Task: structure prediction
Amino acid sequence: MIVVHETADDATIWEEINYEKNTYEDAFVHAFVDGNNIIVISNTDHEAWGAGYPANGRAVQFEQIEVTGASNFTKEISVKSKMLV
Result:
């Protein structure tokens, strides 16, 4: 199972990762993706905290950095898809 969230703010990928490091007890995902990077911050054996039961214990969870424009969104999805193959 794969869960993809979107940040819905204008923070960079590194700002989002730092925020999550400080709030991991409230929300936690395995990886972050933007138009250029996929940054895995946790082994997928670790339970994520972003989708509720039963998805938290079963899903690989990504946080997608908000982008604007169709071409940027396509690029971001392309980067993520390469990891999932």
